Amino acid sequence: MPIRFKALSYIYNKDMPYAHKALDDINLEIREGIVTAIIGETGSGKSTLVEHLNALLLPSEGSLEILDYNLIANQKQKFLKPLRKDVGLVFQFSEYQLFEETILKDVAFGPLNFGFPLEEALKRAAEALKMVDIPEELFSVSPLEISGGQKRRVAIAGIIACDPKIIVLDEPTAGLDPRGAKQIIDLFISLNRKLKKTIIIVSHDNEMVYNYCDETVVLSKGKIRYHGPTLELFADQEKLKEFNMLEPQIVTFRNLLIENGFKVSNEARTLDMLAKEIAGQIRK
């Protein structure tokens, strides 16, 4: 089932003199089982949009259909806890939310909160920690005693342990080195490809969006400016200029290859893929 925003608006400080409409008449359908990017300049409404997905924010106007839930403006919601289990939200700098005395207990907190027995919660926590490459010898260590990158992975494990159907990432690679950022993104792409999890990524990183995301939504001043295939967006120079977006370096390199007579498919999104495609042409 797709995620459907229907004429949804959100107003901060509604009915106050300093009210601000952060989202304005959003009509959007996000497909199930793919990786979708939400991009736009600072203040465009990206975080406000995704915080509706697990009901941290509720519509001021309009409605949102997500999984089997329907969030309607000015209606009391009775199913927020099961919705928040099904939609995991990984905040920017999520490692600041770690609080338990050990890593294992911290990751098990989510499953326990959603009603899993202690033994099952600890089992899920251990499996999730292994998925994010946290070694077993660290399970009994305090979250305060590990590195920043490890803290980020532990926080993500806390979401994975709850087995959500939809995972929402708000700037998941912020503050990480390139290697750590790639490991985090590769993990979520694996969850999408192998387990068919719906992944939604808020990001300013056009290179990452181009490399990994099937579709992209562009927000500006609380309105949808574009929604469609990622490759089509970054192939359209007029749209990039209109949205004041930088072309990913890999796209620039790809276009240079084409200008110099090489044949490159639209699917070649990485340097490795480009190298494979032109290697045979160079030999000829």
Distance between the termini: 48 Å
What series of H and E elements makes up the topology?
Answer: EEEHEEHEHHHEHEHEEHHHH
Compute the CA-based radius of gyration. Answer: 20 Å
Shape, per Cα inertia axes: globular
Note the beta-strand portion: 15-25%
Roughly how much helix do the residues carry, as a percent range? 25-40%
Q: Which strand order does the major sheet show? A: 6-7-8-3-9-10
Number of DSSP E strands: 10
Helix and strand content put the structural class at: alpha/beta
Number of helices: 11
Question: What's the mean pLDDT score?
Answer: 90
The biggest sheet amounts to: 6 strands, mixed
Spans where pLDDT lies below 50 across 5 or more residues: none
